[in-house]
Amino acid sequence: MVKSLVRGVFSLSLAVLLTAGAGSSLAASSFDTPATVAAREKMVKEQIIDRKIEDPRVIEAMKSVIRHQYVPDDRKADAYEDYPLAIGSGQTISQPYIVAYMSQLAKIQDTDKVLEVGSGSGYHGSVMAKLGKEVYSIEIVPELAERSKKVVADLGITNLTIRQGDGYFGWAEKGPFQAIVVTAAAEHVPPPLVQQLAEGGVMIIPVGHPFVTQMLVMVEKKDGKITSKELMPVKFVPLTGNRPQ
Prior knowledge:
245 residues, alpha/beta, Rossmann fold, two-stranded antiparallel sheet, 6 helices, 9 strands, 24% strand
């Protein structure tokens, strides 16, 4: 749920047939049209591939998840544009490039268990469900949690589980996780998430104060040691909830 620094507007192109990835269903095809397929192809070419996203599994996931189903009805025409969109409750669906970039950084393999903090619309979790074995996603806003559950169910995505709760504390009973992706800005890296990161795992998280530019950070656990690396400036909505100060 990011307000990216990058902006742009693109038009539609010719339709190209897609193949479905892991954790998907033919149910999704009933929501797609030649126009939305064309828009998604253009999005992937100009916003994803041309910006050096190179992981072929991430590229295919971005092609196959029908983004327009995750946005409000009055914003469907903008679903494949190069910016985030409001989804209600002060939250956003992230810019497509940011979703692809964070997913590539997480290095998700098809045997991995993934935790997402901040389900939002359910879109980013659905992309990662194409990449990993199981994705567990937490959303603090009840209305968004229920809406994203319905969208995911309607699309037949069976390996993405969403629950309402405070993502700061993670989902310990489902861990450890080979990848953790946080889609809201925390003022510090939550210790419970570090604890739930598997050996050799990767966490991607924006860190910084709310409503200002933050830093996207990669946290890795190797040989029991935690390292972090700053990647790029971003601007996410804040991670909210009751947590230790």
